[in-house]
Amino acid sequence: MNNERIGKLLDEFNTFGYTENGMHRITYTKEEKLAKEFFKKKSEELGMDVRFDSVGNVIARREGIDHSLPAIAVGSHIDTVYNGGKYDGLIGVIAGLEIIEMLEEEGIQTFHPIEVIAFTCEESSRFNFSTLGSKAMTGDLKQSDITQLKDRDNISLQEALKRQNLELENIHLAKREEKEIKAFFELHIEQGNRLIENNKTVGIVDGIAAPLRVSLTIEGKSAHSGTTSMEKRQDALLAAAELALEVEKAAVVERKQSTVATVGVMDVLPGAINIVPGLVNLKIDIRSTDVNSRNRVWKKVSDKVEQLEKHRNVKVVIEWKSEEVPVMMDKTIVHSLSELCENMNIEYMTMPSGAGHDSMNMSKRWPTGLIFIPSLDGLSHHPEEFTKLEDISTGIKLLKEVVLSYAMQCSKKEKKL
């Protein structure tokens, strides 16, 4: 393990999209493209074959003794949110490169090929659509799901793809056959405080919470703020404020199930100090590994919507609603990681993930493991996001051991080689 090399690679990647206000390596932008090309360059220097698929995922492959065997894949994403941090996602990609570097130095040849994958569009920041790259790879992406997507500058996803020399009509070509991959592993910062609070170095994720997301518009009536009496108002903002508080209240009741809910967007129109707001758009995110708990939160929120329509004389229109299914990590891999931590004297705990990851999609097709390492103060999606180099190193050591345990396993056929 070469900590200096890891730190240098982290710094080099983060030259792409760096600003004084945080990282801006947004999906399908020039900055992300440059980072992908850098990943390709570093992979090729390690002797790996590299290809871009039809949605922009980058796949670097180190061949095994038997080229026909399914690959052991590791990876994460390199895109960031707006004003993001330097560690989220990127650590998982760097970990894959460091593992290949160590195998080359140690002269270790594995039976199975090893792939390092840099997924595209994991973050939902630009198009309000997350983990696009891994959804495409697993065949869980329909063209109709993304045709109408636009960013805050009104640039469509289709146009963004064209600027990357990619075509919306070809996204289905990114789907991979089940026989191509044996297992997938991802190393990621926790993005929370549980590891630090419990004095643990590693979190072994046993399940990933999935979001229920809703975009709705509250239609009131714009009016002059000085001439409209309080009892005659149809204030969309006040209705939105009540709804936002109900979202919080409903989630707090479900805290034992680690359910959380957030109103992350509230656009108010016309947006003038002397006009009663007539229109508000809200976007709500409800997450849990317990679908029943998540649904109870949404039931209380939807009941509140009905009350607001009567009490405040507004109309509430649901523009779209998406529900993803929580997924559990492979039990055998969870057990293997636990045993490795004990053998390596690593302080660990099993835990759920409140955030979505590419592992969430990969687990639907292949046995998948997700490893967390601490993030200082639980910060993530923030310029001050930070993870100690020693913790990154520990995570990579664990990742290397589990990858090798799967890559060196051989069937009777392989033993004849």
UniProtKB/TrEMBL annotation:
Q: Does the keyword Hydrolase apply?
A: yes
Q: Which Gene3D superfamilies match?
A: 3.30.70.360, Zn peptidases
Q: Which PROSITE patterns match?
A: ARGE_DAPE_CPG2_1
Q: Which domain of life is it from?
A: Bacteria
Q: Tell me the Pfam families matching this sequence.
A: M20_dimer, Peptidase_M20
Q: Which UniProt keywords apply?
A: Hydrolase
Q: What residues does the Peptidase M20 dimerisation domain cover?
A: 214-311
Supply the PANTHER family for this chain. ALLANTOATE AMIDOHYDROLASE, ALLANTOATE DEIMINASE-RELATED
Report the sequence similarity comment from the record.
Belongs to the peptidase M20 family.
User: What is the protein's given name?
Assistant: M20 family metallo-hydrolase
Query: What does the record give as the organism's lineage?
Result: Bacteria, Bacillati, Bacillota, Bacilli, Bacillales
